[in-house]
Design a protein that fits this description.
This protein is an alpha+beta fold and 240 residues long. The chain has one domain (5-237). The chain contains six helices and eight strands, in the order E-H-E-H-E-E-H-H-E-E-H-E-H-E. It has helices spanning 16-24, 45-53, 96-100, 134-164, 183-191, 212-217, and strands spanning 8-14, 29-36, 56-60, 63-78, 168-171, 175-179, 206-208, 234-237. Strands 1, 2, 3, 4, 5, 6, 7 and 8 form an eight-stranded mixed β-sheet that branches. Helix 1 (16-24) packs across helix 5. The termini are far apart.
């Protein structure tokens, strides 16, 4: 029997190529959007650079926003590739994020065992967090591959969102705007996406803010806020 604990009840972040493969297998992919404005970023230049590189600029009202798109395989209630014995059915082709787990892709998120789904006995293995073994060197290489894909895919993913009309993002740290596009529509949009695609700066983007104090702090920016009830997405609140 496998474990499968980390393959249930979650979204699985995918690169653009992985999302295409996921869809071709007949499975569903969600699109998660978050945005930030450069002048409001706290004094953390390394984190700023990391987030800018995995986002793309769009026009929101009279302001430029950086929007990050995350394509995520739906593993709710469980990954569709997980067998009845809790073993991965696509192990040799599993996404980078699965190869990396339980390590973190984001260099600014500390690894916390309490946040992971691994059973307690798995942490007793001496190789789990070692960095001098071939297996762990491969994990580190896959982390870098994932980060490179984030940077390379950033503009194309936002162009993809514009093509599909997914143009409301949640404010970063306040929440995520989660879309559930039809599988065939998303696959076709990815397949027709040019390799050099980039977002149109003239797009009619909006930003969702669900926090009174934050909304007040942003009131001086000429942003287009989505004030109504979300029609084609879910707002999922997150902690900063």
């Amino acid at each position: 029997m496998g474990c499968g604990a980390c393959c249930k009840g979650r979204f699985i972040p995918l690169t653009l190529a992985e999302a295409q493969q996921w869809l071709k297998r007949g499975h569903e992919v969600a699109v998660l959007l978050e945005a930030f404005e450069v002048s409001t970023w706290p004094q953390a230049p390394q984190a700023y650079a990391y987030n800018v590189q995995r986002s793309a600029p769009v026009r929101c009202g009279e302001q430029t926003l950086q929007v990050t798109a995350i394509l995520a395989g739906q593993a709710i209630p469980r990954c569709p590739n997980l067998g009845g014995d809790d073993r991965c059915g696509i192990y040799a082709e599993r996404p980078l994020v699965c190869r990396i787990y339980p390590m973190e892709i984001n260099p600014f998120i500390a690894l916390r065992i309490s946040d992971k789904e691994c059973p307690p006995e798995s942490w007793a293995a001496p190789a789990t967090l070692a960095t001098d073994r071939a297996e762990e060197r491969e994990v580190l290489a896959n982390i870098e591959r994932s980060r490179q894909a984030d940077r390379a895919d950033a503009a194309r993913k936002i162009a993809l969102c514009q093509d599909l009309g997914l143009t409301t993002a949640a404010w970063k740290g306040n929440g995520l705007a989660i879309y559930f596009p039809l599988r065939d529509a998303l696959l076709q949009a990815i397949e027709r996406l040019p390799a050099s695609a980039s977002p149109r700066l003239g797009g009619d983007w909006q930003v969702r803010v669900v926090d009174t104090a934050l909304r007040e702090r942003l009131s001086g920016l000429p942003l287009a806020f989505d004030e109504g009830e979300p029609l084609n997405y879910l707002f999922h609140p997150v902690s900063a």
